[in-house]
Amino acid sequence: MKRFSVVAGFSVLILVLVAGAFFVHEQIRQQVSAQFWVNHTRRVLLQLETTESLLKDAETGQRGLLLTSDELYLQPYNSARAQLSSHIDNLAALVADDPVNESSVAELRNLATEKMAELQQTVDLFHSGRSADAKEVVLSDRGKVIMDQIRVLVAQMRAEEQSLQATRDDDYARSIRITRTSVFLLAGIGIVGLFGLAFVILRDIRRTELHAREIRAREEWFRVTLTSIGDAVIATDRNGRVTFLNPVAEKLTGRGLGEVAGTPIVEVFPIYNEFTGAKSENPVQSVLENGHVVGLANHTVLEDVDGKRIPIEDSAAPIRDDGNNLIGVVLVFRDVTHERKSQELLRRTEKLSAAARLSATVAHEINNPLEAVSNLIYLAKITPGASSELIGQLTLAEQELARVAHITRQTLGFYRESNDPRPMEIAPVIDSVLDLYANKLRTKEITVDRRYEQCPPIIGVPGEIRQAISNLLSNAVDAVSERGNIVLSLSCLDQPGDKYVHIAFEDDGPGISAENVDRIFEPFFTTKRNVGTGLGLYVTREIVERHGGTLEVRQNGHHRVLSGACFLLRLPCDPDPRALESLVPPA
């Protein structure tokens, strides 16, 4: 009778817990469904925003063409015309479940077609030389009326979807509350049931209860320990199927225990070599086969549920029972992203520190010889009988020696003239740099095409600007082969309140590979084997940014002349000498 009571109590408790588990599972399923529809609503809203934006872009492109007669303004119009139909199709597919918005999409498609037809009419009139007729179509306000109808219709559809989203959000929140309450209630029932059964066992079978209490205490200790540990922990059974994940493991893998319990470890814990991308052997499989502790290979990365790869370290160990039989594997690992970044930062800091010390040493050692060479050049220039061509070459050499001396003194902190910017014309600076590379250009038979527009002077430090231009030109000269081509374009861009000088350096060399584009401005990164230090572009960008400008790589786009590399340097300019004060650092 006593045994029957214990069995009956356990049976009732198990039934309650099983029923509760099914109930919680159903609630989770409802949450997933609600979240799906919430995301669905967001996608509809995004498509609405995109469709409306495309129509605005098309209208803007049409107006820009009519106002400026510049075909470049048609780019937004052409892009919108190419994408609009597919976006409306996507929108129609998304709202197929909503009769209200489904009919609105059909109306939106008609209005969009009518609007694009109106825009196309004006563009065709313009291209046929009838600009006045095109403007009359615009001034008739027919397009404005259509666009206002589109805005009203989009606003109605947006309101409908936002209403649905609010309802779905409420359903999702309510399901969360029910799930939380159910979990606490099931936990309470379980605790009460266990204590009731424990009371019966305590009263009738003291020895058995004492042993059971010790087992429960041990299990609870292990559970709390594994849950609270700072490293990620995954446990499997003897077949390599997941039985436990602690919160850290759930976070790193992006998977919860509820969804992966019983799943093979290779699906929950996919690991790869960080450098080759090849799939690495799963350590759990090795432990199951050999029965020994196995450490992860160096440079191992874990791919989470979103495809993101995280560098990890640590090991897998066997789990054995009292009979020393292998019953599972425990996998302990941790995210070492921070350590990797810290190590990389330390290496780069040490490189920069060493470079700074070396630069100061070199600058100190060559400063005196530079002055001696400058004096010798001066004496050579004033030597009687020196030809004008020789004097010109000596003058160029003297200028370059002055620039080197400027750099060495700036490195040592003794030269403050570099902090005194002044107005300068860019075209003569570019030409002077080209004169410096004249011999190298002739040797490689490189053709340089200069395309200069009239530009106002910029405000800057001449030596630094000359150094930046020299670095970019030197890279272009090194990149092209014999009989290659380089195009130097100088133009001015006026913006409200600002003027900028644009200098484009283009060559027909091999260009920059996609994997190197994001790294070319890093210090010490270079693609030139046995040549250069990898500091040229890094220093150049620092100079340009100090002058309030930008330096970027242009891989493709309009106005490209050559197919190789293209660097675009942009510098602010202001002919007013008072602007000098904004660049002079405080004393």
Task: Give a verbal description of the structure.
It is a single chain. With 587 residues, the chain is α+β, with helices and mostly antiparallel strands. The model is unreliable at 413-418, 575-580 and 582-587 (pLDDT under 50). Helices cover 60% and strands 14% of the residues. It has helices spanning 2-68, 74-94, 99-127, 131-139, 142-204, 206-228, 247-253, 257-260, 265-268, 283-290, 337-381, 388-412, 426-436, 438-443, 462-479, 514-517, 536-546; strands at residues 232-237, 242-245, 271-273, 294-295, 300-303, 309-320, 326-335, 422-424, 447-452, 458-460, 485-495, 498-507, 550-553, 566-572.
Give a quick summary of the entry.
By secondary structure, the protein is α+β, with helices and mostly antiparallel strands. Helices cover 60% and strands 14% of the residues. The chain has helices spanning 2-68, 74-94, 99-127, 131-139, 142-204, 206-228, 247-253, 257-260, 265-268, 283-290, 337-381, 388-412, 426-436, 438-443, 462-479, 514-517, 536-546; strands at residues 232-237, 242-245, 271-273, 294-295, 300-303, 309-320, 326-335, 422-424, 447-452, 458-460, 485-495, 498-507, 550-553, 566-572.
